[in-house]
Specification:
The protein is α/β, with parallel strands linked by helices. It has two domains: 2-193, Rossmann fold, CATH 3.40.50.360; 197-260, no CATH class. Helix content is 48%, strand content 15%. It has helices at 15-34, 58-61, 73-82, 99-107, 110-113, 134-146, 165-188, 197-211, 218-225, 243-260, and strands spanning 2-7, 39-44, 85-93, 96-97, 121-128, 150-158. Strands 1, 2, 3, 4, 5 and 6 form a six-stranded mixed β-sheet that branches. The relative contact order is 0.14. The chain binds flavin mononucleotide (FMN). Flavin mononucleotide (FMN) binds at residues 9, 11, 14-17, 91-95, 127-131, 159, 161.
Length: 261
């Protein structure tokens, strides 16, 4: 099992990093107890070289390999693709994700059209001074679910500004243990193969939208190459949700498609 942590703080060993340290420790313990192999990679967006998206649309129109920016994005994306699970963690900045996190999301916007991360689980984490984390976690949820991730859960940590490590440990260790357990179990049980009603419905809406395109765009080529345009396909990956749920979700998607695409 391979899990990558992506943290969106510019502060070295800040609250977000230290909450992730707790989650990482529990993942390692769970893997050792289960006799399972576990590789963990930590990526700090504060240390990575990721230029701001210029909005040129080249990734959408010609493919991400033609992006004029030459930096760490391809390596970060390769790490995400190589992992079974992702912990995406951000500090809350003015009621939303940090700028570092938003730029990472924007730089991967082409994945919204070509959901490459299907078959992988994600857990979403936000640390905050004191205000609610809902809007921040909604931003992460929207992006990562459109990218194809199966969202296992989301958690907010009210760390204040400068909580010391001992207090972070005593206050949040139980929550970190729960997150680690949920993510570890979800990956082992291949929960990504049991998508939600909403995910199945969204796939059907996208499928109908792309099937109606006449152009020869990079997006459409990608959908064709994956076999996703085939009306018999019910999800990005082979999935094991119940037949009734799948049928109803596809029906709902087909009914909604003309109104949302
Ligand atoms: C630019 C900036 C904006 C922030 N905005 C908020 C906010 O809207 N609400 C809040 O409760 N805390 C806010 N905070 C506090 C951080 O969310 C909180 O301290 C977080 O845990 C910092 O994580 P870090 O140490 O990993 O950078 C802000 C901090 C900064 C630096």
């Amino acid at each position: 099992m391979r899990i990558v942590f992506i943290t969106g703080s510019g502060r070295t060993n800040g609250n977000t990093e230290r909450v992730c340290n707790l989650i990482q420790g529990h993942l390692q313990r769970l893997a050792a107890e289960a006799g399972a192999g576990l590789e963990i990679e930590r990526i700090s967006l504060g240390k990575a070289h990721l230029d701001m998206c210029r909005g040129c649309r080249i990734c959408f129109d010609r493919g991400e390999e033609h992006c004029p920016l030459s930096d760490d994005l391809a390596g970060i994306k390769a790490s995400m693709l190589a992992a079974d699970g992702l912990v995406a963690a951000t500090p809350v900045y003015v009621d939303d994700v940090s700028g570092l996190t938003k730029n990472w999301i924007d730089r991967l916007a082409h994945v919204c059209h070509r959901p490459e991360f299907a078959g992988r689980c994600a857990y979403l984490v936000a640390t905050v001074g004191g205000s609610p984390t809902r809007h921040t976690l909604d931003t992460l949820t929207l992006a990562l679910s459109v990218w194809g991730y199966h969202i296992i859960g989301r958690a907010g940590f009210k760390t204040g500004a400068r909580m010391d490590t001992a207090e972070i440990q005593s206050r949040f260790d139980a929550q970190a243990e729960k997150i680690a357990r949920q993510l570890f179990t979800a990956i082992r049980e291949r929960r990504y193969a049991r998508p939600s009603f909403r995910s199945l419905m969204t796939f059907k809406i996208q499928q109908m939208a792309w099937a109606g395109h006449q152009d020869d765009s990079v997006d459409l080529q990608y959908w064709r190459s994956r076999g996703w345009i085939d009306p018999r396909r019910d999800y990005y990956i082979p999935q094991q949700s119940g037949r009734v749920k799948t049928t109803l979700a596809r029906l709902a998607g087909a009914l909604l498609a003309p109104f949302v695409s």
